[in-house]
Amino acid sequence: MAISLKLGAAILTGAMAFGSVALAEEIPEVAVVHQVIDLNADTPAHAFRFEPKFLQVPAGATVRFKGSTGRHTVTAIPRMIPVGARVFEIRGKPELDLTFEKEGVYGIRCRVHGRHGMVMLLVVGDPSSNLEEAKAYLPKLGEAERVGFEELFAYVEAQNG
Ligand SMILES: [Cu+2]
Q: What's residue 4's pLDDT?
């Protein structure tokens, strides 16, 4: 199945803690996030995923979400986005661009496959505005989602420490 950001992934290979990531330096004008079902994956957590599952962009950047079709959605978790940011959900759209102005972290899940750990973390600018609030919400999530976000938050803290 499609793997996004091959270039970024190649550049970052040495620094990656897990999976695919993209940092601001490697991001083209519009960063692209794919929703992927990899039927060859060894576990559900690897089969249903966002590619990349971690993305950090500057404030004002546009992110293109691809593949929100079939049962996939891109669903912002209301308690895991910055104060004043709009809650959003993309469904039934092969491609949609969203522009992010509010700095902070955005916890995102697929409404259907979140239970398999299909989550991603978008960081816009400085994550610190709502990082602690987003982490505090983790116990409310299902196990696979919680584990997925714990890994992503650990990565954010390592990158932005
Ligand atoms: Cu999905």
A: 37
- Does residue 148 lie in a domain region? yes
Residue 27 Cα to ligand 1 midpoint, Å, equals: 24
Stated pTM of the model: 0.82
d(CA 69, CA 80) in angstroms, rounded, equals 23
pLDDT band at 111; cut points 50, 70, 90: very high
Which two structure tokens, joined as six digits, stand for 63?
């992110």
Q: Domain limits at 128?
A: 6-160
Q: How far is the CA of 161 from the centre of ligand 1 (A)?
A: 31
Distance 26 CA to ligand 1 centre (A): 26
- CA dist., res. 60 & res. 63, Å (int): 10
Give me the numbers of helices (H) and strands (E) for the chain, helices first please: 4, 8
